[in-house]
Amino acid sequence: MDLHRILIVDDTPVICKSLEDRLRNKRHAVSSAGSLAEAEKKLAGNTYDLIFLDVELSDGDGRELLDRIAELSPRPMVVMITANTAIEAVVECMRAGAFDYITKPFSISQIDIALKKASDFQRQAKVTSFLNRDRANPREMIGDSPAMRAMRDAIHRVARTNATVMVSGENGTGKELVGNEIFINSPRSEKPYIKVNCAVISEKLMESEFFGHERGAFTGATEQRDGRFELADGGTILLDEISEIPISLQAKLLRVLQEKEFERVGGNKTIKVDVRVLATTNRNLKKAVERGDFREDLYYRLNVFPVQVPPLRERTEDIPVLAKYFLERSARQNGIKISGFAPGVMDGLVRHRWPGNVRELQNVIERACILVEEGRPITLDLMGIVAEDSGGGGSAVPAPVLSQAVSTGAGAGAGEGFNLAQPLREIEKAAIFKALETSGGNRTKAAEILQVSIRTLRNKLAEYRQSGEIPPSLCDGETE
Question: Which domain covers residue 162, as residue numbers?
Fold first, then answer.
């Protein structure tokens, strides 16, 4: 990470020339001002990352400019140039907002040291700012089932390496928590940890989010910006839902993984980074490769060490401890007194299919905590769970579509011959399969029939594939 634009404010030509030559040799963009008045004009029309500011100028004291600089956004760092080595003068500069100082006559090594200190400080400030905006509440990996113990063993083995890790699993299983665990137990745990949710970034902005952009690179790019890979330099980056990266950007991502370098959008300077990559996906990337939606070389570069997160239905022995943890946490956060779970609730929770996995369990318990009368126990009906239903919870398909399908046998093209005694999940699944058959396997058309988003449909199909519920007639037959 570099200091892109630097301003030198000094009325001694030889000092300006010396600084300019050194900074330009290090590929910084440099401007100079010989007076306070000229510096004011430069600051009015430009942004700078760093300013070398002489204390004694022909038209006044350089320290007068510090108050003006403090009002700028973004605020540049200031290195004072002074001939006065008295500690009082230095302290006064620092109190006024200066980052560092150098004394005349200065050497090239002093300039290099000041640059490195400023660059390191800028980098840490940007990472801290990013993490403060993006940080979620800390969460734990809970459970001691055989599946969880095996996964923890795999996590701790790979955590101490620098290997790229692919974390796969259904929605709501806790793939991000696996990434957190790998980071916490890695040698890079004291370095930056940057998370990117690829599913929520538009295709047009994704390249800039990953690699940053130069000022003027596109409409709205009013200043140079560091990307997530640059912020993560020396640390770890988590690419959540990696399958959502467009094919047009995958070659550039592959280059970062292989060569550890990239250019910002609109720039031609190659930036080197040392970043460990963790990725998550809820899709079968092998199938995506076969369909041409995902680059094969990128898939193998990401899948160095695969970790599969088990769905909740495959570790039902963890449900009681998870339920108690979520109940205690929700009650504490909402300031509610709850007497625990009613008799029979744990049995109902264990038999429930949990298509939304741990996230669904957490959400239904939090909802129940809000609805329950204070001092009363949590019941299954407060969580929206039918005791006899072992087939799953909420429906991805809107109720009107399912209702019409049930009443007409073929409503909205969604299904026929439903048995009302079936669990809602089975009715939903049949509606989805019928919509795919009606659309000739086209997921976009099927999503329109079902009145859901293509992503919702894709996630449901991924769930059915992982549980072996896709009928032979639909196996790998869908298209976008």
Answer: 146-308
